[in-house]
Specification:
Largest sheet: 2 strands, parallel
Structural class: mainly alpha
């Protein structure tokens, strides 16, 4: 997650027509803190669980550069 996820979430909040509906983070403490701070109703430990449960219009991949490709491939395959 690093610093990217909160920055992107804050940018989305500037647009009232955008609703943050879910977030994924394998770390339960970070996941819970993010969900509480940003009011995100659905939180997931694994991207696969999110991808099987959500219908979304936008997905932001806020992960370290080294794992971008893996996450994007999972998204495209779902």
């Amino acid at each position: 997650m690093g610093n990217r996820k909160p920055i992107i979430a804050g940018a989305y909040r500037m647009f009232p027509e955008i609703e943050l509906v879910a977030a994924v983070d394998p770390d339960p403490v970070r996941r819970g803190a993010f969900g509480t701070f940003w009011g995100v109703p659905k939180l997931y430990a694994h991207a696969q669980d999110f991808l099987h449960d959500q219908a979304v219009d936008i997905i932001s991949v806020c992960v370290p550069d080294a794992i971008h490709e893996d996450i994007i491939r999972q998204i495209l395959a779902s």
